UniProtKB/TrEMBL annotation:
This is dITP/XTP pyrophosphatase. It comes from the Bacteria. It is an enzyme of class 3 (hydrolase). The active site is at D71 (proton acceptor). GO terms for molecular function: dITP diphosphatase activity; ITP diphosphatase activity; metal ion binding; nucleotide binding; ribonucleoside triphosphate phosphatase activity; XTP diphosphatase activity. Its EC number is 3.6.1.66. Transmembrane segments: none annotated. It catalyses: dITP + H2O = dIMP + diphosphate + H(+); XTP + H2O = XMP + diphosphate + H(+); ITP + H2O = IMP + diphosphate + H(+). Substrate binds at T8, K9, N10, K11, G12, K13, S72, F154, G155, Y156, D157, K177, H182, R183. Homodimer. GO terms for cellular component: cytosol. Pyrophosphatase that catalyzes the hydrolysis of nucleoside triphosphates to their monophosphate derivatives, with a high preference for the non-canonical purine nucleotides XTP (xanthosine triphosphate), dITP (deoxyinosine triphosphate) and ITP. Seems to function as a house-cleaning enzyme that removes non-canonical purine nucleotides from the nucleotide pool, thus preventing their incorporation into DNA/RNA and avoiding chromosomal lesions.
Length: 201
């Protein structure tokens, strides 16, 4: 398997995957690279695992090639795990990063620092025609700051502080983020599985 299609139209996400998988000789294509226009896949699952599998299997069936689907988001303990699977559309269906993080900050008003613990979660699903779909989960523990800060990253990065860090994830360079991110942890587990099962041949 020298090529995987990533079931996303998110440029930032596609770039992260291309950089990491490129280091082990696997080319990553995204839906942005496909000539055919793919309609938005409805994420009807109630867990990250379910949504990742829906995306991967839907696209794999359509193109008959190995597909990586991912579902990721932010879980805030003081908000009972919200926004969770609704992270991309927490403030509304139009998927606005700025409004989403503003809503999280609003919901956490008055919550003390010690109680602002949170984690980014990423679940990867690998669907291959004729084979069982594999899922791997990665997390990045941390807490939510008081205001957005930083120029890098996307999504909730400007308000998320990785455990033990005095910088928001948006203040990390892309290279630094790729070392510790929830996506990186999930990708490492998936790559390990691919190697153990000779799936990279």
């Amino acid at each position: 398997m020298k090529q995987i299609l990533l079931a996303t139209k998110n440029k930032g996400k596609a770039k992260e995957f291309k950089e990491i998988f490129g280091q082990i000789g696997i080319e990553v294509l995204s839906l942005l690279d496909m000539e055919e226009t793919i309609p938005e896949i409805e994420e009807t699952g109630t867990t990250f695992e379910e949504n990742a599998v829906i995306k991967a299997e839907t696209i794999a069936e359509r193109f008959q090639i190995p597909v990586l689907g991912d579902d990721s988001g932010l879980e805030v303990d003081a908000l009972n795990g919200e926004p969770g699977v609704y992270s991309a559309r927490y403030a509304g269906l139009e998927k606005n990063d700025q409004k989403n993080l503003e809503k999280v900050l609003e919901e956490l008003k008055g919550v003390k620092t010690d109680n602002r613990t949170a984690r980014f979660v990423c679940v990867l699903a690998l669907a291959r025609p004729g084979s069982q779909t594999i899922t791997k989960r990665g997390t990045c523990e941390g807490c939510i700051g008081e205001e957005p800060i930083g120029e890098h990253g996307f999504g909730y990065d400007p308000i998320f502080y990785p455990e033990g860090s005095h910088r928001s994830l948006a203040q990390y360079s892309p290279e630094e983020k790729n070392q510790i991110s929830h996506r990186r942890h999930a990708i490492d587990q998936m790559i390990s599985w691919l190697k153990q099962n000779d799936a990279m041949e």
